[in-house]
């Protein structure tokens, strides 16, 4: 798909160990071990898989590079598709333009984000509960801001690692820098009903982190114009497929950012759906069986990928032990990761250093070491 090349072209310079995801530290000044190191979470080389490397990349830069891999004339931008109409020969895409415009396709792959218009249309068309697919406030907000590298080094020290997670009760800070605050009483939410961002007073941010170490507060003090971002996520939605239509990415399983896995799941989704729809059972189907072959491929995709985003019934402890995983697990464990960073526990860890270390070091293995190639090969054999 060109994703690896685009990622390499857009990634920033990082002097840390390329295998390091984050160094974790206790940042809450009231904690017995305030300022102490917990652990480093690293990727590792796995036989049969490409070498894993952690890089920093801005999503807009990555998308700009990815677009370069598309054939000329294939993509059209600055259009909003708000509904679709399946019919015997394909499916019609309806765009919100004046006058209205349309396009024809064999299949629609809907990747229009957490606020997906096409997801809402799908649920309305199928008579499903619209509330069941509405994004919900995750009870987290994030403070965001940029500071010069020299300012970072002044606050944290010239030898400070670039990728650090500073953990505290109900809040945590990660570089570069992003600061998260748990908001169970919705005090930050206001009248917002979906993801939003806005500038907020500097004093409000510092008040949220008043219990943190002097180094962390110096880091936040250096942000000139902090903004707040309301974090929303999808609930476990019951359906992602309609006739000739499939949801992928945030449209299917928008999650909190605490595992850094949302964009990665969308890329996995794209890999799976491209493999399923290009299979001989679809591409070589005669006209009389083509619709059936397409829908069978979409249903196979939903069966394989949709559970990998939310699975509610498997205890988190088993995620390290079980061999088969799905997209929906990633969404649930992302929320659990945020709770772990903020001493609110998943398996009763709280702020216990040893339990935090054990939980953090293995938590992401099943995501990073997932064998997409093996799962795709097994599923294609069933088509």
Keywords:
three-stranded antiparallel β-sheet, eight-stranded mixed β-sheet, alpha+beta, 383 residues, 15 helices, 19% strand
Task: Write the SSE topology.
Elements: H1 3-10, E1 20-26, E2 37-42, H2 59-67, E3 81-87, E4 90-95, E5 101-105, E6 108-110, H3 117-125, E7 136-144, H4 149-156, E8 164-168, E9 171-174, E10 178-182, E11 196-199, H5 202-208, H6 214-221, E12 227-233, E13 241-242, E14 245-247, H7 250-253, H8 262-277, H9 280-283, H10 290-305, H11 307-310, H12 328-341, H13 353-362, H14 365-368, H15 372-380
Parallel strand pairs: 1-8, 6-14
Antiparallel strand pairs: 1-2, 3-4, 4-5, 7-10, 7-12, 8-9, 9-10, 11-12, 13-14
Structure characterization notes:
The protein has 383 residues and is of the alpha+beta class. 34% of the residues lie in helices and 19% in strands. A hairpin with a 5-residue loop joins strand 4 and strand 5 (101-105). Helix 1 (3-10) crosses helix 2 and helix 8 (262-277) packs antiparallel against helix 10 (290-305). It starts with a helix and ends with a helix. The model is unreliable at 308-325 (pLDDT under 50).
């Amino acid at each position: 798909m060109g994703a690896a090349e685009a990622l390499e072209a857009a990634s920033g310079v990082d002097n840390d160990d390329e295998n390091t995801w984050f160094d974790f530290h206790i940042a809450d000044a009231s904690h017995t071990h305030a300022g102490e190191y917990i652990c480093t979470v690293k990727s590792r080389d796995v036989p049969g898989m490409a070498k894993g490397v952690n890089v920093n990349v801005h999503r807009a830069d990555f998308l700009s590079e990815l677009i370069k891999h598309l054939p000329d004339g294939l993509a059209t931008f600055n259009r909003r598709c708000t509904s679709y109409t399946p019919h015997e020969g394909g499916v019609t895409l309806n765009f919100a333009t004046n006058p209205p415009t349309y396009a024809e396709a064999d299949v629609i792959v809907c990747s229009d984000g957490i606020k997906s218009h096409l997801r809402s249309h799908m649920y309305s068309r199928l008579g499903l509960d619209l509330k069941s697919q509405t994004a919900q406030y995750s009870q987290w907000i994030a403070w965001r801001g940029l500071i010069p590298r020299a300012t970072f080094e002044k606050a944290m020290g010239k030898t400070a690692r670039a990728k650090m997670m500073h953990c505290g009760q109900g809040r945590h800070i990660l570089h570069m820098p992003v600061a998260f605050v748990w908001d169970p009483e919705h005090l930050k939410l206001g009248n917002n009903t979906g993801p939003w961002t806005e500038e907020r007073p500097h004093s409000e941010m510092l008040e949220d982190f008043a219990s943190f170490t002097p180094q962390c507060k110096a880091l936040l003090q250096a942000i000139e114009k902090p903004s707040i971002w309301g974090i929303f996520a999808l609930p476990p939605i019951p359906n992602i497929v309609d006739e000739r239509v499939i949801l992928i990415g945030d449209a299917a399983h928008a999650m909190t950012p605490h595992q850094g896995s949302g964009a990665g799941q969308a890329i996995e989704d794209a890999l799976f759906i491209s493999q399923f729809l290009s299979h001989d059972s679809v591409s070589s189907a005669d006209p009389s069986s083509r619709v059936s072959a397409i829908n069978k491929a979409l249903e196979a995709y939903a069966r394989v990928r949709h559970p990998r985003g939310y699975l509610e019934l498997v205890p988190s402890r088993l995620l390290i032990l079980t061999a088969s995983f799905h997209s929906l697990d990633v969404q649930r464990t992302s929320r659990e990761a945020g709770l772990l960073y903020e001493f609110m526990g998943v398996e009763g860890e709280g702020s216990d250093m040893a339990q935090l270390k054990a939980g953090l070091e293995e938590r992401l293995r099943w995501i990073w070491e997932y064998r997409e190639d093996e799962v795709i090969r097994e599923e294609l054999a069933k088509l």
